[in-house]
Design brief:
Distance between the termini of chain A: 39 Å
Radius of gyration of chain B: 34 Å
Mean pLDDT of chain B: 64
Shape of chain A: rod-shaped
Helix content of chain A: under 10%
Largest interface: A-B, 84 and 91 residues
Order of helices and strands of chain B: EEEEEEEEEHHEEEEEE
Number of domains of chain A: 1
Oligomer: heterodimer
Low-confidence stretches of chain A: none
Structural class of chain A: mainly beta
Chain lengths: ~140, ~300
């Protein structure tokens, strides 16, 4: 009896809280004066690359009974999340010579690759049982 | 990996007449994790060959930064230069994780004999066998018993010793009179115990000195036990490959980036930028995870009664 198992499990998460703000606090309101514009920019460009591979080989020779089993699996659970905030709150902003820009930009990318191969070979025998199970699972919540 | 990075003007007065004012918090931490695990088991001759190879890859990589750039607490900031009077508050985190894990497991059994007729006992003095010993009924084997002996009346009947003997080594005989003639020549010699294999891991060249350490091996033994249903859920699935229950073997990036002007006054002849980002346009670096895992399992058995 020959049993070969190979597996790769990956849980990848990127969860960021990104905030750009002009706001008030316990000290009072904010006051911003600019002659060439005001920019409040929150940007998230996270990148997630997941590459998983599993290979199994099970081989049996000659005999009265040959049982060969392979189980090959990859599982990837990838999450890109988080919060992104750009704001002006409880404040005074005065731009005399340019634009006032408040921008929140998310350009996250996720690449997930999974390969799973199982090979089961039995030789000459009275009984030969060969089982190859291969699975690739990917979840992007 | 985690930390806190703060750049702040807090409850202060700042005045620049000759240049810009920049409050910048920049994180570029990185994890590069490379792991290799190799398991090798090999069995000798016997009536039954059972070979199991299990390869698994899991990793724990965590980076969580707190990156903050701020003008706060009632600060008063003035940049009065006519052409270079910008005020910038910037928080950037381009931390990265690169994890490359490889796990390979090979299990191989040698040629095995089928049912055989047990030979007549002989009074010829014994010669130590270098291969499995035989007890009553079915044979048992131990690769760590090089001096064990067994019964034989001819060179062709000492089948378990055949591989270890030379042509001139003559017969291989037992010194014990308790051996009985088995009807089935069966051995478990190919079944190298998981514990033995784990203990032998540090003899492989692929590991650094002292690795894997005793704690790891003890934990691995405890996880494997006598079944591949490691998590005890009644089935064998990918979940059995996790070293810890749930999602403990995670690759995680979780950061907090904050760029703020809070409760403060900012007065400038130029522009005001409040920026929080996971991307650096100047270097094109960005926050990222690159996770690569490869697992290989090979099990092979030889010829015999059962393989």
């Amino acid at each position: 009896m020959n049993i070969a198992g190979a597996g790769v499990v990956a849980f990848n998460q990127i969860n960021n809280a990104v905030e750009a703000s002009i706001e008030g606090d316990l000290a009072g309101r904010s006051t911003v004066k600019a002659e060439d514009g005001v920019t409040v920019d929150a940007e998230n460009r996270a990148h997630l690359l997941s590459q998983l591979g599993a290979v199994t080989v099970s081989a049996g020779g000659a005999g009265a009974l040959s049982v060969n089993v392979t189980v090959s699996a990859t599982y990837a659970d990838n999450t890109l999340g988080g919060s992104l905030l750009a704001n002006i709150d409880d404040s005074t902003v005065d731009s005399s010579g340019g634009n006032v820009t408040v921008d929140a930009d998310a350009e996250n990318t996720l690449e997930a690759y999974g390969q799973s191969v199982g090979v089961s070979v039995g030789g000459a025998a009275g009984v030969s049982i060969n089982l190859a199970v291969s699975a690739v699972l990917a979840a992007i919540p | 990996m985690g930390g806190s990075l703060v750049a702040a003007i807090d409850n202060s007065k700042v005045e620049s007449t000759g240049g810009e004012i920049t409050v910048d918090a920049y994180a570029n931490s990185s994890i590069e994790a490379n792991g290799q695990a190799v398991g090798v088991t090999a069995g000798g001759a016997g009536g039954v060959s059972i070979n199991v190879a299990l390869a698994a890859v899991a990793a724990t990589n965590i980076t969580g930064n707190t990156v903050e750039a701020s003008i706060n607490g009632g600060s008063d900031v003035d940049a009065n230069h006519v052409t270079n009077g910008d005020v910038t508050v910037s928080a950037t985190d381009v931390s990265s994780i690169t994890a490359t894990l490889v796990s390979a497991s090979v299990s191989a059994g040698g040629p095995v004999v089928r049912r055989s007729t047990w030979p007549a006992r002989s009074s010829t003095p014994a010669t130590p066998c270098r291969r499995p010993l035989i007890s009553t009924g079915t044979a048992t084997a131990s690769s760590t018993s090089p001096t064990s002996t067994r019964v034989s009346s001819s060179s062709t009947s000492c089948r378990h010793c055949r591989l270890a003997r030379t042509a001139s080594s003559a017969t291989c005989r037992a010194t014990t009179a308790t051996l009985a003639r088995p009807t089935t020549c069966k051995t478990g010699d190919d079944d190298l115990a998981a514990d033995v294999a784990i203990d032998a891991l540090d003899s492989l060249d692929v590991f650094a000195a002292g690795q894997p350490d005793a704690a790891y091996k003890t934990a691995l033994k405890a996880k494997i036990g006598s079944t591949f249903d490691i998590d005890g859920d009644g089935g064998i699935s990918y979940l059995d490959l996790l070293l810890t229950p749930g999602t403990g073997d995670d690759t995680t990036v979780g950061s907090t980036l904050t760029a703020t002007i809070a409760g403060s006054q900012v007065d400038t002849k130029g522009k005001v930028d409040v920026l929080a980002s996971t991307y650096d346009a100047a270097t094109t670096d960005r926050m990222e995870i690159e996770s690569t895992g490869v697992a290989i399992g090979i099990a092979a058995g030889g010829a015999g009664g059962g393989s």
